[in-house]
Automatic annotation (TrEMBL):
<dbReference type="InterPro" id="IPR009000">
    <property type="entry name" value="Transl_B-barrel_sf"/>
</dbReference>
<feature type="domain" description="Tr-type G">
    <location>
        <begin position="35"/>
        <end position="260"/>
    </location>
</feature>
<dbReference type="InterPro" id="IPR027417">
    <property type="entry name" value="P-loop_NTPase"/>
</dbReference>
<comment type="similarity">
    <text>Belongs to the TRAFAC class translation factor GTPase superfamily. Classic translation factor GTPase family. EF-Tu/EF-1A subfamily.</text>
</comment>
<dbReference type="GO" id="GO:0005525">
    <property type="term" value="F:GTP binding"/>
</dbReference>
<dbReference type="InterPro" id="IPR009001">
    <property type="entry name" value="Transl_elong_EF1A/Init_IF2_C"/>
</dbReference>
<keyword id="KW-0648">Protein biosynthesis</keyword>
<dbReference type="InterPro" id="IPR054696">
    <property type="entry name" value="GTP-eEF1A_C"/>
</dbReference>
<dbReference type="Pfam" id="PF22594">
    <property type="entry name" value="GTP-eEF1A_C"/>
</dbReference>
<dbReference type="InterPro" id="IPR031157">
    <property type="entry name" value="G_TR_CS"/>
</dbReference>
<dbReference type="Pfam" id="PF00009">
    <property type="entry name" value="GTP_EFTU"/>
</dbReference>
<dbReference type="GO" id="GO:0003924">
    <property type="term" value="F:GTPase activity"/>
</dbReference>
<dbReference type="GO" id="GO:0005737">
    <property type="term" value="C:cytoplasm"/>
</dbReference>
<keyword id="KW-0963">Cytoplasm</keyword>
<keyword id="KW-0378">Hydrolase</keyword>
<dbReference type="InterPro" id="IPR050100">
    <property type="entry name" value="TRAFAC_GTPase_members"/>
</dbReference>
<dbReference type="InterPro" id="IPR000795">
    <property type="entry name" value="T_Tr_GTP-bd_dom"/>
</dbReference>
Length: 454
């Protein structure tokens, strides 16, 4: 259903301030940037040009060192992939460069006039949809990149392409604002007819997928040429398009109301150690606030820790709140801290995230070939965690329009159906009630390499 947001500013998760543990943190604190932070995931069919578009955008905004760009241009030519120079700004590991596809979610940050953006470059290949899900689960908004080249849009949008799956998954994971970037317009001479054709077909689809018309924008671009990212230079495009650039559309995105009044929650996105700080965890604060000196618990495992420092936008802070992407240095028992893993949840010890082995869920099935029945075995993807699950009970089907029960104890759940089911895991997992923490109460079901429900 549609998200209903509520919340006022509230207290942090608490915890004592231990001066000795944070003595090194006595540094000048720069004033917080008052621009809202938005996590923006970029999705689309493989080879739609997502990484090239993202890389060129960062370069045009001045976030790429000229030496790095020259090195990428040189190395990409050596490998016979000269057109990948901008993409390599996002695809840094050797496997991604060798295969020419994004595998992991690349994370970068940049600022526009009114927004701070955390840019999540998600993989487009069907083999890496689970990685895309972990990126989309962190997102407040999305850019759907579509290859406008003749024949390429059709292959990505039809015949098993990832455009449809990505669009539906992103919406089911709570993203409501969507920018559709029709890319590679230089390949079709910046044709208005081609842009309008794609806009009409995709516009009808995203409406059926649950997006509101006022939350969807379309923009013609060329990621490789850099056209209409920050400015327009091509006369062929200027003849008919006078709308906003991609950056202008990003700057207009609305930040969602943050759950700052709830108990602190942060899903761990990265774990690393530094010589000066020891164990550090990075992630997005999903709810509440965190301050230097706060006591936290990490689940599963109930590892206790104290926040030694808070780093936001590359600068040391005393605190952070819901919506911020942060790095926290933690103090605690070294052996216990070694058990902290990506996908764990840092939370307030007085109100930790529940651990469950079985739960009821309202699911929406996608376009599935085989109906779901009791005993269905699949994999649940929650944030960056995946767990084998079984559907033990099918309680009822729900009417999409009224929300009323339409049939009790159905024998099967077909395509595009809403149902309430009982899900059982092999081991206890972190999960919130949707009514309490919307983003932490969403998950996706996949089976045999395909997404079946959310």
């Amino acid at each position: 259903g549609d998200d209903d947001h509520e919340g006022e500013f509230g207290a942090s998760s608490g915890g004592a301030f231990h001066e000795g543990e944070v003595a090194f943190d006595e540094v000048a604190q720069e004033a917080d940037d008052d621009r809202d932070t938005i996590s923006l995931v970029v999705v689309g069919h493989v080879d739609a040009g997502k990484s090239t578009l993202n890389g060129h955008l960062l370069y045009a905004l001045g976030y790429v060192d000229q030496k790095v760009m020259h090195r990428n241009e040189r190395d990409s030519k050596v490998m016979g992939k000269a057109s990948f120079a901008f993409a390599w700004l996002m695809d840094g590991n050797s496997d991604e460069r060798e295969r020419g596809v994004t595998i992991d979610v690349g994370v970068n940050t940049f600022a526009t006039e009114h927004r701070r953006i955390q840019l999540l470059d998600a993989p487009g290949h069907k083999d890496f949809v689970p990685n895309m899900i972990s990126g989309a689960a962190q997102a407040d908004a999305a850019v759907l990149v579509i290859d406008g080249s003749t024949g390429e849009f059709e292959s990505g949008f039809h015949a098993g392409g990832q455009t449809i799956e990505h669009t539906v998954l992103v919406r089911s994971l709570g993203v409501q604002q969507l920018i559709v970037a029709v890319n590679k317009m230089d390949n079709v001479g910046y044709s208005q007819e081609r842009f309008d054709e794609i806009k009409k077909e995709v516009g009808a689809f995203v409406k059926r997928a649950g997006y509101r018309a006022e939350d969807v924008s379309f923009v013609p671009v060329s990621g490789f040429k850099g056209e209409n990212l920050l400015e327009r230079k091509e006369e062929a495009l200027n003849k008919w398009y006078c709308g906003p650039t991609l950056v202008e559309l990003i700057d207009r995105l609305h930040p969602p109301v943050r759950a700052v009044d709830q108990s602190m929650r942060m899903v761990v996105g990265d774990v690393f150690k530094t010589q000066g700080l020891g164990l550090c965890v990075a992630g997005k604060l999903d709810a509440g606030a965190v301050r230097v000196g706060d006591s936290l618990v990490c689940r599963p495992g109930d590892v206790e820790a104290v926040v030694r420092s808070v780093d936001k936008h590359g600068k040391r802070r005393r605190h952070a709140r819901a919506g911020d992407s942060v790095t926290l240095a933690l103090n605690g028992d070294r052996e216990e801290l070694d058990n902290v893993r990506v996908g764990n949840v840092l939370c307030c010890p007085r109100n930790p995230i529940p651990m469950v082995c079985s739960f009821l869920a309202q699911i929406l099935t996608f376009d599935i070939a085989v109906p779901l029945t009791i005993g269905f075995q699949g994999v649940m993807y929650w944030q960056s965690v995946n767990e084998p699950v079984v559907l033990n009970r099918l309680l009822c089907l729900v009417d999409k329009q009224s929300g009323e029960i339409s049939r009790k104890r159905p024998r099967a759940i077909g395509s595009s159906s809403t149902a309430i089911v009982q899900v059982t895991c092999q081991r206890a997992v972190c999960l919130e009630r949707f009514a309490d923490y919307k983003q932490l109460g969403r998950f996706t079901l996949r089976e045999g390499g395909s997404s079946v429900a959310a």
